[in-house]
Amino acid sequence: MYKAFFNLTRNPFELTPDPAFLFPTRRHSEALAALYYGVRRHKGFVVVTGEVGTGKTLVLRCLLRLLKQSCLLRLLKQSTDVAYAYIFNSLLSPTEFLQYILADFGLPTSGKNKSELLFDLSHFLISRGTKKLTTILIVDEAHHLSAEILEEVRLLTNLETAEDKLLQIVLVGQPELDEKLDSVGLRQLKQRIALRARLDSLDENEINGYIEKRLHVAGMKPEADALFSSEAISNEA
């Protein structure tokens, strides 16, 4: 009902991370650029952290959209340029973690032990690597990863040739992930991080732009009266 009242075509403040609503602050643009550069240049390991609600998953969705757009340019070659596994449930055992990865890549996992899973994943990555294709593992909510799983992630970074990383790993999570990666026990994993970005909360000026961007995408006309007073925006900030 309120959409019709305000002449909007869609809900402007849905919680679903829709890339169309990205408000590109400097920090968000830098994070997205780091992600895209990291996976496209096969840097191997990229980490993005930020508090709840700072847009981490939204930036991830924007990354996937960018990658899909770049794939469209290669359709004439009839190749799947980018393949990715997206894990959003990080409360898994090491074997379940590997099973999830292989299943998301479309590989069979039934009845296979950990060694067989690793062998199949390695073969899959080498096959794609010889064709200069990009293969990505994305782990959202990565601050929940146990030390055991993070060790598995470190071992996966060993899958490489003399020139290239075969698996591009993207970890995204809350600041607790930074604390884990900075711990003494994970110093070997930390050394392998190629790029690291941090998302912060919006300031007052950015909140104003954020609101305007969402209302514009939702169909609000440029000549329409402002829906939120400066006092309301200041209180939100």
How would you describe this protein?
By secondary structure, this protein is an alpha/beta fold. The protein has 2 domains: 177 residues, Rossmann fold (3-Layer(aba) Sandwich); 35 residues, no CATH class. The protein is 44% helix and 12% strand. The protein is built from 10 helices and 5 strands. It has a 5-stranded parallel β-sheet, sandwiched between helices. The longest helix has 17 residues. The protein is elongated and about 60 Å long. The two termini are 27 Å apart. About 3% of the residues have low confidence.
What's the layout of helices and strands?
Blueprint (H helix, E strand, L loop, with lengths): L1 H4 L20 H15 L4 E6 L5 H17 L9 E6 L6 H11 L9 H17 L3 E6 L7 H10 L11 E6 L2 H6 L5 H4 L4 E5 L4 H14 L12 H7 L1
Parallel strand pairs: 1-4, 1-5, 2-3, 3-4
Helix pairs in contact: 2-3, 4-5
Largest sheet: 5 strands, parallel
How many beta-strand segments? 5
Strand content: 5-15%
Low-confidence spans: 72-79
Which strand order do you get reading across the main beta sheet?
A: 2-3-4-1-5
The CATH topology annotation of the largest domain reads as: Rossmann fold
Integer average pLDDT: 86
- How many separate domains? 2
Give a concise summary.
With 237 residues, the chain is α/β, with parallel strands linked by helices. 44% of the residues lie in helices and 12% in strands.
Descriptive tags:
Rossmann fold; alpha/beta; five-stranded parallel sheet; 237 residues; 2 domains; 5 strands
